[in-house]
Each structure stands twice: as C-alpha cells, then as structure tokens.
Amino acid sequence: TILTSNILQVVSEKEVTGIKIMDSNGRLVLARQLNGQQGYFTVSLPVLSRGIYYVQVQTGSGNETVKIMVE
Prior knowledge:
The protein has 71 residues and is mainly beta. It is 0% helix and 76% strand. It is built from no helices and five strands. It has strands at 2-3, 7-23, 28-44, 51-59, 62-70. A five-stranded mixed sheet has the order 1-5-4-2-3, with no helix packed on it. The protein is globular and about 30 Å long.
C-alpha cells in the first residue's frame, strides 16, 4: 500500500477498536482509539516523512498489521 496523502482509508468487516502506526524502527507514531467503526472509514494522519510504516488495526478478535509506504 502506498500512501500519498494524510488520509488512511480503512475497510474492515470487523469492528475496529484502535489503530496504531509504527515507523520502520518500531517507534509508535500514532495511536488512536476508535469506537468499533466498521465498513469503510478514513483516519486523518499527521504529516509523515517518506518511508515505510506499519499500521496495526485492532479489533475485538485480534490485531492485523499492514505495511505501508509513504511517498
């Protein structure tokens, strides 16, 4: 996934309770609690430097981590 703006688009069939973004060194860049959002929604992000980041989507049934690249 390549991110070219400060908007993260999320699509989930499960209720999302939180999102964390870590840089390539594992440092936490953003942590946001959500109220069980589901389906398609967007999350505004701070300005991120170019590079690779990991987005952890937290649900009631576990976490899923996705790698993104910011250009």
